[in-house]
Amino acid sequence: MMHSTMRGVFLASSAMVVVAAMPAHAAGQTRQFAIEAQSATTAIGALGHQGDVQIIAPRKFTQSVRTNAVRGDMTVEEALGRMLAGTGLVAQQIGPHSFAITMRAPAPALQPVRAVTVRPGPALMTGERAALSDAAPAAAEPLSAPDEAPASDIIVKGFRRTLMKAQDIKRSAVNLTESIVAEDMAKMPDLNLSESIQRLPGVAITREGGEGRNITLRGFSPDFTRTTLNGMEVPASSDGLDSGGFTLNAGRAFDFHVFASELFNRIDVNKTQRASIEEGGIAGTVDLYSAKPFDFKGFHFVASGQGGYNSMTRKVDPRLTVMVSDTFADDRIGVLVSAAYSKRTVYQEGYSSVLWTSPYINGDSWANSNPTVTGTPAPCGAAKATDCLWAPRLPRADFFGNNQKRLGVTGSLQFKPTDRMLISFDVLYSQLDNDRYSYNSMEWLLTHGPAGNFVGQTPLSFTVAPDGKQLIAASFNDVTSWYESRHQTSLSKFQQYVLSGDYRFSDKLKLDAMAGTARDAADRSELRFYARSSPHFYSYDFTANPNVAKVSYGSYDPNNTANYINALTAANRLNNVVKDNFTAKANLTYTDNKFNAKVGAVFNRRMVRYGEAQGDLPSFAPSSYMQAFPIPHFGDGVVAGGLPTFAVMNFDAIARSGLISPNYVDNTSADWTVIEKTMGAYGEVNGEFDIGGMTLRANAGARYVRTNLISRAIISGAPVQVERSYGNFLPAANLVLNITPDLLARFSYARSMTRPGLSSLTISSPVFEYTTRTVGNLGNPDLKPYQSNDFDLNVEYYFGKGGLIALGAFKKDIVTSLTNSVVSKMVPQEFWAAIYADPRYSPSYQADPAKVPYTFATAVNAPGGNSVKGLEATLNVPFTFLKGWMSYFGIASNYTYVSARDSTGLSPNSYNFTGYYDTGKLGVRVSINKRDDYLLSQPAGNGNLQERKYGPTQVDFSAYYNLTKRLSLNIQGINITNEKERIYDTGDGTQILPREYTKTGAQWFVGARYQF
Questions:
Q1: Among 292, 442, 737, 899, which residue has the least CB neighbours within 10 Å?
Q2: Distance separating alpha carbons of residues 687 and 746, to the nearest angstrom
Q3: Residue 139 pLDDT more than 80?
């Protein structure tokens, strides 16, 4: 008895207590675990942390053992069993919430070893959570239970638990990784994937229509971030507003709003490279994971419903989710099906200038009407100083009305025929429909001079800004309204099929492989009309509000349809983008104690095809086809008193009239296809080393990838195809030093790459001028990728239940980039036939492409480029050190600073702050996201040096209350302060000229969730 007691005391004094204790029934409760395959010392610590139990684990047993990955909902006992299967270790419960790790009794020689495998994903080498003693008992036998935890210790649930899980992933990863983990099935913490990702350090998002669309990671534009779904790179495209910089996304950027967030239960953002991570993202790689049945043992059902109310539209929209999961046949077969459906009505309302310009820059002059001038124009090179004053081109009130429907469906089948094998088949389908009506009241100030033929105007008065450069107020006679009405419909369909599996040949050797295909097809139609008015009085005035002008029409009534005498069909077109990806890859992993080696190969085929068609463009008398402005309370959420209304086109009346033919003609000269085939292989080693009481985790490897490019188009009526290829060698290394169990330092180096944007590789619609021997509007398939040398240094300190202080610095030196240049070179032979077939070509021009060089204005590779440097800081503090109800509070925050030459999407400063109160039964959180202004385009057009977007402050709210164990109520608010979206021009580089000022309203969701 004394011997047993002394053994228990000795073991307890030489072991690590991983996390604080739970109430007596804690060990039997179902918990959600996310632990990678790694060293036993680290894995056991993570399990105790996530399961809220005490685990005594002597170093003598764990120091040379590598455990299995564990993922999903299960009890602590089940999690320990899966983790330790085949390792020779066994967990023994020594108290109601305490376990001890001991050696398993010798087993029969032929007894099979059970190996637990999970969904494909990067195998992460991990470090110790804390130092464990070498002392241990010789065999498994009951041990004395440690003292029970104080009754005041709280159970970690809700939002706080998701933070802890995410931090465990970050902590155990050998490369720098940020994660977002769902608390439960179909329960991502935000309604939009990009809204969740934006809360991570280094991440900022671009919004459109009040909803996150793309992400900017560490100051790089969206094209520099690679996105995978269930292990394979995927495309996602949708349409957007023209003010957003593009309409239908035919580039590499990933549109996150295509997917319902409820379909996913984990997001990883890899900020540093490993050789085993596929190439393509200099900024980083975002990995999305949908739920799988083996994540949830047994039968599970979840259903939730919400009603969404928008303060601008004043309409209620539904949001519904259901998920069913079950495992059977002794947990060897699992099936999961989920579906999410939502409708969203959003109005974007505001005021716009459609860029600013001046008569002098525009190449014309104000009419000689001797207007009254208040203020002093700055001197300039024009004959009249007023011709240098910047004025809005097409001042207008804006309405963009979106009616969206989003449907997402997932299916997952998992089969474990033996303890050594796991096979998974996953399907994901997503569909985003958008029906948009846009109405814009443009007044024609675009061209200057005497009025006539729906252009020109007669200036009456000018008010000059204090800087002498801007017309902040003006009045005119003889202005023509060009009132724009647009109807756009778009449909984006995404579908993915992935077959994956892994097989463990032995405790040391494992093979995993996958093959998948994904397609995104995005279609867009646009019908646009301009109703043109009789000349009238018009004035604008920005003196009281620099963003929204006060306007006056005098006696003219823009709501009277009789005042419109002509209409043009400005656009009648169809656009289509199809993106196809195919991936096949395999990895072989060898593990021996603290050493891990991996080799693998992957083949990818990416295809993007763009097409467009043109319909009829008739002119007609508009009055019979116009109607009163159809939107009530227009602009009430933008300025006091709302915005002025105006007559708009009645699309139903036009459809009934037969004015517009249903026939479209393919514009084959604008069609293009780009295909990339890549073959890559890598080798990677991982190891753990003891250094003076510290543990060093090391990762090193290299990747080689060969890219074959095919670019196709129709030129001069004949197909043209250009083929090119190149190779890249990409080394990577990561070091993690566990200075103490809770303090670690990281260093990473990698050579990374991002392939050129697709617009730079397309060869459609070139312009050959034979008399000047010049070439314009031709992409360059000879382009090589952007390449960067990346360095990261980070320090992280973990404390308490979810506490984290982290500080990191990074530098990305672009050693190969792209720039626009004018070069003289021979025309590639692939284009000769098209030139000879061009009826404009003549041998008399002495412009034979086979004999003489042409001058190209095109993108070319350049040595060097932007050097991006930055700092990232994270502070997460659960207030568990306080007593009573105050212990349920906490904060999660981060700050990012990026220094680089001004580039698209770069905000120098951004931060996120979340304050929360979470008991597990009741939870409330408020999140604030802020970023600096950022560049949209340079030059911006019409003489502007830049066009920039205001960095908004987004405030979101979320709360829940669990009525029972199965039923909970929730409320969520997005953009609860109705933050503005503001785009501005910089004129000569020193000005702030409002381009667009709009609001989309606060969005509230109220609902319930039921699960069993």
A1: 899
A2: 15
A3: no
